[in-house]
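sry for the spam today, last one i promise. struct tokens for design, 143 residues
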């Protein structure tokens, strides 16, 4: 059994749906390098190879499956990739609600889960705008 790896340097805190705030990725990375975002990173091969090959760019990967999220975070931490962060969250939520406007320069989406059954349409990442759920609005009025 291998020793545990500290993944905290490469992970991002998940922003709860009920909080109206957004990531300021350039502040998180502490530089103004271009930011590339990959949705659905799987085992992270593309993300890690890209971060290693292009240290002049910042890389963010979003994955819902905790097993793969943890695997990629450990691999990135072992390699000391200061230009890479991973986030365990719903991709649609991240893009719609938590990335600051004009916060990324390049978006990568490879092999999204097709969710072929009609009852799963709402889970599809890529879908017509009419199916996109409106952002939850929270009010503190009267509190």
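last one done:
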């Amino acid at each position: 059994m291998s020793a545990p790896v500290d993944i905290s340097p490469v992970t991002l805190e998940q922003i709860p749906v009920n909080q109206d705030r957004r990531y300021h990725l350039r502040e998180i990375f502490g530089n103004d390098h271009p930011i590339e975002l990959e949705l659905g990173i799987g085992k992270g091969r593309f993300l890690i190879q890209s971060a290693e090959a292009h240290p002049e760019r910042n890389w963010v990967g979003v994955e819902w499956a905790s097993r793969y999220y943890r695997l990629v975070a450990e691999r990135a931490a072992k390699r000391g990739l200061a230009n890479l962060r991973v986030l365990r969250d719903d991709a649609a939520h991240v893009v719609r609600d938590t990335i600051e406007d004009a916060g990324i320069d390049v978006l990568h989406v490879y092999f999204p889960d097709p969710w072929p059954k009609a009852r799963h349409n709402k889970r599809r990442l890529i879908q017509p705008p009419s199916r996109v759920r409106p952002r939850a609005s929270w009010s503190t009025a009267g509190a």
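Strands lie at 35-39, 58-63, 84-88, 106-109. ok im logging off now
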